[in-house]
Amino acid sequence: MDILLNENERLDDLEYKGMRLIQDKNGYCFTSDAVLLANLVRAGKNDVVADFGCGNGVVALLVAAKTTAKSVIGIEMQECAFELAERNIALNAMQDRIRLINDDIANADKVLGKESVSVVVCNPPYFEKNSGQKRISESVALSRHESTCSLDDIITKASEVLKFGGKLWMIHKCERMAEVLTSMSNRGVEPKKVTLIYPKADKIPDTFVVEGKKSSAHGMKIDSIIVYDQEGNMTEQAKKLYNKS
């Protein structure tokens, strides 16, 4: 299909089955964190997945493409990102698998329904409100900082929309791990597995992906992924995760 881009847009290769993504060069562009998260999510043929804060649709697209999930529902508050996600869903012919909702995560229980989905996935803003460096645009700031929705708010809404035994997958900075795990446990989504993400073999982990289960017993496993070896080559472990091996 013909792809019309404006001067502020670029077309990126998702490196999976010819999938592509339009991105706003002046807005928030996805990072490897979004791809890592999407590759760790597990969803079966009966699962309905909700992507909280779906942005331009990258996680929703990859989850739909790489799992057998029945459907994926992306929720995005920013109208500009929502419209870009709509174009990306159409570009990759995923309209039959992905539905988008232009609304705030704070209204997730109302627009989705309580206990309505079996999986929630979220690549949330990493920084607390009014923290960190100033960003170049309001849309980037909203994507990077908890301007309208706190970490606990996100986890609370995830718990509300998840069915009994439903799963939450979230990626976050290691420095905020205690907050994430505590909030999940307090909201009835018990952390079951934490995967530490090492950007390089000789570096400390900077992010982690947590898998939580609603109304589950205590007990958590620890795993790790090293993305690049000391020579800067992608590890076999990462290649397998990214479907490159």
Describe the secondary structure blueprint for this structure.
Layout: E1 9-13, E2 20-24, H1 32-40, E3 48-52, H2 58-66, E4 71-76, H3 79-91, E5 98-102, H4 108-111, E6 117-122, H5 138-144, H6 151-161, E7 162-173, H7 177-186, E8 189-200, E9 207-214, E10 221-228, H8 236-241
Parallel strand pairs: 3-4, 3-6, 4-5, 6-7, 8-10
Antiparallel strand pairs: 1-2, 7-9, 8-9
Helix pairs in contact: 1-2, 6-7
Task: Estimate nothing, just give the exact number of structural domains.
Answer: 1
List the uncertain runs. Answer: 140-146
E-strand count: 10
Tally the helices: what do you get? 8
Structural class: alpha/beta
CATH superfamily: Vaccinia Virus protein VP39
* Proportion of residues in helical segments: 25-40%
Named at the architecture level, the CATH assignment is 3-Layer(aba) Sandwich
CATH class: Alpha Beta
What characteristic shape results from the CA principal axes? globular
Radius of gyration: 17 Å
* Strand-residue proportion: 25-35%
- The N- and C-terminal alpha carbons lie at a distance of 29 Å
- Rounded mean pLDDT is 91
Predict the CATH topology: Rossmann fold
Main pleated sheet: 8 strands, mixed
What does this structure look like?
This protein is of the alpha/beta class and 245 residues long. The protein has a single domain, classed as Vaccinia Virus protein VP39 (Rossmann fold). The protein contains eight helices and ten strands. The protein has helices at residues 32-40, 58-66, 79-91, 108-111, 138-144, 151-161, 177-186, 236-241, and strands spanning 9-13, 20-24, 48-52, 71-76, 98-102, 117-122, 162-173, 189-200, 207-214, 221-228. The strands form two sheets. Strands 5-4-3-6-7-9-8-10 form an eight-stranded mixed beta sheet. Strands 1-2 form a two-stranded antiparallel sheet. Strand 4 (71-76), helix 3 and strand 5 (98-102) form a beta-alpha-beta unit. Helix 1 (32-40) packs parallel to helix 2 (58-66). The relative contact order is 0.13.
